[in-house]
Amino acid sequence: AEGGSLLLLDADARELRVRVAAGVEPELWPKIRVPIGEGIAGRVAADARPLRLRGKADRQAFHIVRERLDVESALCVPLVHDGRVLGVLNLHHSTRPDAFSDADLEFTEQLAHLDAKIIARAQEHEALRNQAARYAAVREVRSLLGARTPLATRLHALCAFVAQRAGRGIVNVYLHDPGPDPVGAPLQGD
């Protein structure tokens, strides 16, 4: 192969996004989005089946919007783990329409299987880290609001905590006043 890419599935948006690519400038990666079922990678993701292309791809058959003139042959293999498509691995050659053999396709499928396992574990690890961070934040908020200090002090501490967690932003807390209180009456909860 002369180039290739690894696209991961954004399940919410139902599209593939480039995570790494050889032969495509890194500043273009965030702009490339392939809807499931469209284009070659989108079709491979939708069908969860590999594809080997010899020569130029049929624009109508694959619903290709932007044709790659620099691709004469390609392998496109889904990254599947536990029956779930995580993304697509693409390899291409720019001058030889017969660059990839059946053995190349088989090897790429094995590589994609290993990649899918690694990606699934990384995604699970990230989800656990995010969940642990949420639990830690909830514990801290409960601790701040449950302190035996005046309500204004607790709310100030809460704002400082949220601002720090949000990247040093500005945080405001607005309290609902259900009715007129006598001047100087303590806030509820003090």
Layout of strands and helices, then pairs:
Blueprint: E1 3-10, E2 15-22, E3 33-35, H1 39-47, E4 51-54, H2 59-62, E5 73-81, E6 84-93, H3 102-146, H4 151-165
Antiparallel strand pairs: 1-2, 1-6, 2-3, 4-5, 5-6
Helix pairs in contact: 3-4
Keywords:
190 residues; alpha+beta; 6-stranded antiparallel beta sheet; 4 helices
Give an overview in words:
- The radius of gyration is 26 Å and the shape is elongated.
- Helix 3 (102-146) runs antiparallel to helix 4 (151-165).
- The model has no long low-confidence stretch (mean pLDDT 85).
- The protein is α+β, with helices and mostly antiparallel strands.
- The longest helix has 45 residues, at 102-146.
- Strands 3-2-1-6-5-4 form a six-stranded antiparallel β-sheet, with helices on both faces.
- The chain contains four helices and six strands.
